[in-house]
């Protein structure tokens, strides 16, 4: 099923003031527009190539809290997001999402604390039911990630995820892959920055690499996550010998 809420992203560099750090990132600096041809889009690349920077900017421009949550979350622990969002506009689809959430591993602790804050307000009812039935702080790191994805992502929504695999075991990553695939098939749109070769295996997903001088589409087998993992699993002894000799 195809029901994309964001069809294209445009970057308006004439709005940039001064010399912000994101303008020095090659893949970001060369970007003028980016299409979203699938209900699931992955951003991949080495650390520092700009994938999380762009995902954060998409989230903020769309109205999500920079530290995560739905568009109704309103809290600030540390105002550290870039001004890249001010340069972004969207070509949107004809239908608005009924739900949405921005999940970023970097500030998940802050998000969990805010969930506790909201849950303490009697008028909000059983706020924890959307997060596994109890405080995210009372679950292990991996359990809290999985509880949020399983219980809070209601469908027909726009979901932005920054490194969701960071707290998940390989088995849980497989479970999340199935969950993300179902969400995409049933009308949600997901944009995900990840290093996980498991999540990247999701069928029918578009994958953009931020490595090199420009953002460009790649196949699953062309991603470094896949290639390095495959190389290690098939040539473990040789790779360890070379690495540990240094």
Q: Can you walk through the features of this model?
A:
Residues 11-236 form the ABC transporter domain. It is a peripheral membrane protein. Keywords: ATP-binding, Cell membrane, Ion transport, Iron, Iron transport, Membrane, Nucleotide-binding, Transport. It is found in: Cell membrane. The structure is a single chain. This protein has helices at 26-29, 51-62, 108-119, 141-152, 170-185, 224-234, 236-245, and strands spanning 6-11, 33-35, 40-44, 88-92, 99-104, 157-162, 189-193, 206-209, 216-217. It is built from 7 helices and 9 strands; from the N terminus they run βαββαββααβαβββαα. With 246 residues, it is α/β, with parallel strands linked by helices. The model has no long low-confidence stretch (mean pLDDT 92). The longest helix is centred in the C-terminal third of the chain and has 16 residues, at 170-185.
Q: How much beta, percentage-wise?
A: 15-25%
Order of helix and strand elements from N to C terminus: EHEEHEEHHEHEEEHH
CATH architecture: 3-Layer(aba) Sandwich
Strand count, sense and closure of the main sheet?
6 strands, mixed
**Unreliable residue stretches:** none
Keywords:
six-stranded mixed beta sheet; Rossmann fold; three-stranded antiparallel beta sheet; 31% helix; alpha/beta; 9 strands
Topology (elements, then pairings):
Layout: E1 6-11, H1 26-29, E2 33-35, E3 40-44, H2 51-62, E4 88-92, E5 99-104, H3 108-119, H4 141-152, E6 157-162, H5 170-185, E7 189-193, E8 206-209, E9 216-217, H6 224-234, H7 236-245
Parallel strand pairs: 3-7, 3-8, 5-6, 6-7
Antiparallel strand pairs: 1-2, 1-4, 8-9
Subcellular location: Cell membrane
Keywords: ATP-binding, Cell membrane, Ion transport, Iron, Iron transport, Membrane, Nucleotide-binding, Transport
GO molecular function: ATP binding; ATP hydrolysis activity
